[in-house]
Amino acid sequence: MAARHLATALEDLGEPTRSAQQKRYLKSDLTHLGVPVPAIRRVIASFARDHSDLDRSALIAVVSELWGAPVHEHRMAAVELLDRYGSILRPGDLRLVERLIRESKTWALVDPLAINVAGGLVERFPHLATRLDRWAADPDDWIRRSALLALLVPLRRGAGDFERFARYADALLEERAFFIRKAIGWVLRDTAKRRPDLVTRWLRPRVSRASGVTVREAVKYLPARDREAILRAHRS
Questions:
Q1: Is 106 helix (H, G, I), strand (E, B) or coil?
Q2: I need a labelling partner for 191 at 20 to 30 A (CA). Which of 2, 6, 68, 177 fits?
Q3: What dihedral do alpha carbons 191, 26, 18, 37 form, nearest 10°?
Q4: Looking only at Cα atoms, what is the longest distance across the chain?
Q5: 34 to 26, 75, 105: CA distances (angstroms)
Q6: pLDDT in tens, 8-28
Q7: CATH code for the domain of 22
Q8: How far apart are CA 188 and CA 129, in angstroms?
């Protein structure tokens, strides 16, 4: 019942002209309603106000029903629900998150699942970080990207497990997959906002192995002298 209510609310907000553009942009096989992300979040916020006592089993049931429909906005809503109610998830729910990432096939779904949902679980239950060790070596590009991004939020705050991220990034630095190269640079960039020296020390001896997209992202918040030195080394 709750999932059907959410689906109807999303369908009422659909914009047909936007749906075609969105589908092309994401290269998606799903049905697209053309609902902007802020509007999806407003629907979920309203649902959460009316269901503040939603328990974990009910949450998983709603998420599973929404995800089961091959509709992009329904799946986005499922991801937003997992994020919104993240505090009631349990360690075993990381298996569900992994399955959803494998089925997502697009950064638009993978990234919030990895950063907010998987990352939130790993931060609350640190022993789950060993699961990320397996993800970092997985054949699926999106799972490997998720291993990196699941560590992003605490690193952005100036905390987090940089050693684990660095181990993954070093092994993946010569990857050909664009979205993995981008993810390495993204995490380095956000880490550098609070710990630029750490990023400089890590990146400088590896610059010849890193892709252009990784380097360009990573140096954005470094001091000018370090940024120029790394870019010069990469060009040479």
A1: coil
A2: 177
A3: -30
A4: 61
A5: 12, 13, 18
A6: 999 999 998 899 999 999 999
A7: 1.25.10.90
A8: 19
Question: What whole-number distance in Å separates Cα of residue 35 and Cα of residue 188?
Answer: 32
Can you read off the two tokens belonging to residue 76?
Answer: 């986005």
- Give CA 186 to chain center in angstroms: 11
Residues 4 and 43 occupy one common structural domain: yes
Q: Which two tokens stand for residue 166?
A: 């660095």
Number of domains in the chain: 2
Provide, rounded to the nearest whole percent, the portion of the chain with pLDDT above 90: 97
Mean pLDDT of the chain: 97
**Structure token digits, residue 110:** 């993978």
pLDDT of residue 1: 78
Residue 93 lies in a domain: no
Q: Domain check: are 120 and 201 in the same one? A: yes
- d(CA 138, CA 86) in angstroms, rounded, equals 25
Quote the domain boundaries for residue 13: 1-88
d(CA 93, CA 60): 9
| pTM greater than 0.90 | yes
Q: Do the beta carbons of residue 169 and residue 144 sit within 8 Å?
A: no
